[in-house]
Write a structure and sequence with these properties.
Layout: H1 34-47, H2 55-61, H3 70-76
Length: 77
């Protein structure tokens, strides 16, 4: 999945999302590609079967599947 989304050189993190992090629908900001966003979230949902520690972060991001801002795409990555 990392090579598919061009993230082979990214650094690892221990916490998938910061404690207390809130995502909100931002109107008027640039939007991400819906197809790419849904593809990433779908792959992450599949990964939840073996990595339950990322389940909360994925559920936070998946709430904005219809019209995701660029910020939410960065959070998903």
């Amino acid at each position: 999945m990392l090579s598919e989304y061009g993230m082979m050189n990214c650094n690892t993190i221990h916490n998938p999302i910061a404690h207390g992090e809130l995502l909100c629908k931002d109107d008027g900001v640039p939007k991400a590609s819906v197809t790419e966003f849904r593809s990433i979230v779908g792959n992450l949902m599949f990964l939840c079967n073996t990595r339950s520690d990322i389940q909360f972060a994925i559920s936070m991001v998946s709430r904005y599947m219809n019209d995701p801002p660029i910020l939410h795409l960065k959070v998903a990555k």
